[in-house]
Amino acid sequence: MVKTRILLAAGAALSAAALALTVPALAGAAAAPAAATAATHMVTATSLGGVVRPVSAAAAAARSGTGSASTGPASTGAPAASCREPDCNLGYHGGRVQHSPHVYLLFWGPKWKTAAAEKAAASYLQKFFKGLGKSPQDNWSVAIMQYADSKGHLAVGKAEYAGTHIDAGTPPKTVTLNDLGNEANKAFKFFGIKDPDDAQVVVAPQSGTCYKATSLGQFEGNCGKPLAASSATLNYCAYHTYNYDTATPNLFLPWITLPFQPDAKTDCGMGYINTPGTFDGFSVVAGHESAETATDPKESAWYDSNDLTSGGEVADKCSWGGSNWGDKDPKGDVKLATGTFAMQSLWSNAAGGCVMSGKLNITATPPAPQSSLLGSKVSLTVKTSGNGHAALTFTASGLPHGLSIGKHTGKITGTLGVTAGTYHPTVKVSYYAGSVSIKFKWSVSSKPGAIKGFAAKCVDDYLGHTTNGKIDLWSCDGKSQQQITFAANGELMLLGQCVTAYQNALLKPCSAAASQVWQRTSGGEYVVKSTGRCLTDPASRKANGTQLTLAVCKNSANQHWTLP
């Protein structure tokens, strides 16, 4: 789909003529989604995406009167009724994102080897991308982790930088889109790229380069000096696009055109944050384009098709702090592992606005201590806050038997079964970039009732004796000497005393001793804590008055008992 999404200093997609780029066999292409052949033909896409307009430009959409009107297909972002463009959420349009972006810097021209300005700029960009994406310092890039495709979220944690190459050949007198696309394709040979769909080739021509105008307009610093202010809205600082293989549709290579930003002076960010800030524009613009390439590498993933003001991609909406359309979005220096760099903010669907950090202050409230009866149905929701509109994922461990937690709802449901006990479950609440965990107490016990076992007979206190009573097997009669409570502390309470494990089972005063603590297995065995042995009808006698014993657990029928 060809999209026309004008943006100001922050990234959109505008149509341009497709240009065939014939290249030889691509190194490493066999590892791509579909292997390239020796006759690979790469063409530049008909969409130029993520154009960064000069900082001094007035909003193109405002001048044309489009404002927040929607002429494109409905976005899956925030509805028009609840927001005003460009401050509306991005929508997902079905395309893929880059799950592990890798940035390859391709400096074009002999000045990158000889000129002091180019050498300093190259060092600045290398340091920038060696820090971008690297945890724990880079929280700026965390904002793009919320944008996923069918295969999962973007991953941030390792530096995006993957390598540098200088093509010392002199660029043509007038560099065309075709020239830039061919230079991007050379990256296969230069770098041996094996994952082109996750690659970002930054093509950076030397200072003073002249560019042929495209449908985006002209580079604001064309031929080494800023263009006239009267044409500012028609020009650009950078843009991203991609090449694709006409024979192998799944093989594509995203790339970024990054002209020498100081050639445009303040129009492309010089001194935007710092003084003198000679290279501020490089980090602001390169960061902008990298984020958009990651979230919308083929112009088919995350953007707001209703946004005709900014361009609608993740960095467009916050470009130059929104100054081109009257917003005051955050901007400033970002501290990475490799230094401090001038940056703009990025749009966060989770926050519903532009942010300098993608981290969220997620909190989860531990439920009050729970007390429940075996056999009862449970419905308990873990309450959270601080996630904005970010999707949360819930997992739990240590829940009472029979319960589970809803992955996306945080609701704990189920019917309590298997055994009584005191539990200390842990619930983990995760979002795209982190998680929090809570613990709470859950006591599970039973009502008084009969424990039925072998031959459908009941656990019984022989003749109702409360002093050293003999725990035996007896026909179920509903009398008090068969009314057992399975307590949350694991005791089997009967007539105010506890079933106690010796070689035989006896009734003794409750003392919380290990010989009085029981756990029932899913197979129905009552296992005593002190020895790990099971309550047993010896020799499967079935006869009334048979004293129950403690024997090695074998999961046999004479060791299977119901809950009270």
Task: Describe what you observe in this structure.
With 564 residues, the chain is mainly β. It folds into three domains: 296 residues, no CATH class; 83 residues, Sandwich (Immunoglobulin-like), CATH 2.60.40; 106 residues, Trefoil (Acidic Fibroblast Growth Factor, subunit A) (Trefoil). The protein is built from five helices and 39 strands. The strands form twelve sheets. Strands 1, 2, 3, 4, 6, 9, 10, 11 and 12 form a nine-stranded mixed beta sheet that branches. Strands 29, 30, 31, 32, 33, 34 and 38 form a seven-stranded antiparallel beta sheet that branches. It is elongated and about 110 Å long. The two termini are 66 Å apart. 49% of the residues are buried. The N terminus is likely disordered.
What is the element layout, followed by pairings?
Elements: E1 13-15, E2 20-22, E3 41-44, E4 47-52, H1 60-64, E5 91-92, E6 102-108, H2 111-114, H3 116-131, E7 148-149, E8 152-153, E9 161-167, H4 177-191, E10 199-205, E11 238-245, E12 252-257, H5 280-295, E13 302-303, E14 331-336, E15 339-344, E16 346-348, E17 353-355, E18 363-365, E19 370-373, E20 377-381, E21 383-385, E22 393-397, E23 403-405, E24 411-415, E25 421-423, E26 426-431, E27 434-439, E28 442-445, E29 458-461, E30 469-474, E31 485-486, E32 492-494, E33 497-501, E34 505-508, E35 518-520, E36 526-528, E37 534-536, E38 546-547, E39 549-551
Parallel strand pairs: 6-9, 6-10, 10-12, 19-28
Antiparallel strand pairs: 1-4, 2-3, 3-11, 4-11, 5-13, 7-8, 11-12, 14-15, 16-17, 18-21, 20-24, 22-26, 23-24, 25-28, 26-27, 29-30, 30-34, 30-38, 31-32, 32-33, 33-34, 35-36, 37-39
